[in-house]
Write the structure tokens for this entry.
Amino acid sequence: MFHAPHAFQRAPLPSATRESEPRPDAPATTADRPDQAAAAKRRDAYFDNAKYLAIVLVAVAHSWVPVMDGSRAARALYMVTYTFHMPAFIIISGYFSRSFDLSPAKVKRLVTGVAVPYVVFETGYSLFRRYVDDPDAPVSLTEPWYLTWFLAALFIWRLTTPIWQNLRHPLAVSLVIACLASFAPSIGDDLDLPRVLQFLPFFVLGLRLTPEHFRLVRRREVRILAVPLVLGAVVFAYWAAHRMQLGWFLRNSSAQDMGNPWWFGAVMTLALFGCAVLLTAAFLSWVPRRRMWFTVLGAGTICGYLLHGFMVKGVEYSGLVDRNEWLVSPTGLVLFSVVASAGVTLMCTPPVRRALRCVTEPDMDWAFRRDAARI
């Protein structure tokens, strides 16, 4: 988020219930195309607001990593944010993937909107890492680095959508798969498969949601209940800050890799899934329903997701924090949060979306049969 993240993406960084609906997890640059103005008008402000706020949380949480060492409060906030920011982004992506099938038009959209950006940005991040940090860093399309895992995951999740839509108990099956992935170190890192499988239940949950579920979480009672829920989560996270490993929130390692017994992976997978769903519901209950100044930015969250990694990693590789120890403080945490929020906001703006359209939503009619080209 992307990815994401969508992505945090798609995303962000980050298909719809009907073919004409905009895709909140895709580049969604329809507002910039006159022939698609009608589709742009049908965009739901609530989901665009949710995507933008989620991608800001993704960028801010990433920016905390270099400056939160030694701060118990910062670690607690990081844990709370990481519990739900990508799950929220993935749930929305799943919700808007409900009608995905293997029709030519949607396969084309999947390739141009997910696979192509993955190839471009995975290569870009690998070259960036090689140039500024590690001259020997590999360039590999099978080992997603940093943010690009979300695009690989979204590609796999979307391809399997018809399966989940036909199973009798898809969420239960996906949770079993996630639990198995949490204690199976032999899966390997190709396409960041451990993370793909452990985040899978959130995508499947999104597939099972209906508009009524989102109306339910927007009720006034839910917004009120969300306050003690989030406060309780922060208090618990502060208590657990130095007792829990952050790897549980990243979901990219097995229980054994983190020095725990195998069964602990299943317990933590189910516990974190429950916590993530509750916190995501709280987050969605607070998302504004009306158009806001940032609503238009929700259409560009995939750009914010994919680009903010260069900003975050650039600061990390520059040694800025090592040279300025005062940044590892509450002041530094606030400063990095503000800069990350402003940076990812600019990356979601229409001019950036238009500039990146060639890689986030390329016109590749030449590569597809005529029936796929007609979208």
Summary: Residues 1-40 have pLDDT under 50 and may be disordered. DSSP finds 17 helices and no strands in the chain. Residues 104-132 form the longest helix (29 residues).
